[in-house]
Predict the 3D structure of the following.
Amino acid sequence: MKTPPKVVRVLGLASSLTMLAGYVVYSHVTPNEPPPDLLALSSGIGMIENPTKPPGNDLHIISSKVINQPVFSVRKVTWGFGAGSETGDPFKPVPHPYRPPPEERVGTWFPGFEMTGLSIDPLRKPDKP
Amino acid sequence: MTLSTIILSTGLSILFLVVLFRPLEKLFPAREAQKFMRPAFWTDLFFLLGQYLLWSGLVFWALSHFRGWLDGFVPQNFRTAVAAQSWWLQAIEMIVLSDFLIYWAHRLQHKVPFLWRFHSIHHSAEHLDWLAAHREHPLDTIYTVGLINLPAFILGFPLETLAGFLAFRGLWAIFIHSNVRLPIGPLRMIIGAPELHHWHHDKARDAGNYANISPLMDILFGTYRCPDHEPEAFGIHEPISKHYLGQLWHPFRRHKKDAA
């Protein structure tokens, strides 16, 4: 079999990588619909629910290969930068379980650090302009 | 989701997969003689349609029960503490834990006759490509996907921060089955490559390459294999139906001798 020219191979690879990147970004920002329940499993059999479970964490990886439902969510998926990212607001401080909130800290100051460059849990309040 | 939406979404997904993988299979073929409409094409297409139209609902139903059952065992404070970590740290923890679990669970699928009954369906494919990746018994899928979800269920990782990564991983899981030989150099040690997974499907095999995507666990536990050529043949030695329904029923048939 004749090998395609190198330029065709490079273009083919580039287009596939572009589609892959596009799919990943699209999947990250687009909430999934619930999976089809054509077997009517959830209508007749009660789900086991824990009333104390945290809201907004009802996500399941349905299948590694069903690409229109990589992650199922019962709520809107939001962009998240910080821990938990429940709000999707990258500037909202997230309480740390072992640290007191900023207003309760006295005489301490350390620069906040976050991989994205956003300080989401600074130990001091931002200076007013 | 209406039936027409489900069908449209499934059709668009198939179209996307063809457009994404078919050029790669034409430009960088692992087996040049293999055609698009190769033997067992329709069987694998039925497996794909089954996953999209029927079994994803079953998997979700099973996961919901599994999660509800686990919720009773894990203290909420523990989950809150885990979820308060930086997202990248959670991502690393979830990926490493999932890969570790999947690696050992996959080895069990090859060693335990009962699990092999279900997993052998996936290995019965004699032609590997993007479509053959979907040949999985639904109960085998529940087993695998349950384990992928387990760290998130127990530790409370918020998966929305990982949605993009999980999507990538899903597509990569299809890619490693595709009829592509595209040496990606040292990158294959991190994210895996078709050349590695093809050897996992080798018919005359002592399997190896059990890791889900990244072969790091295989390297760590000594099951990494990467010869510089393609395997002679794919499939399994034991007799198995060539048809979709026959393969779905296969694990429940009386087996004279279980062998993995």
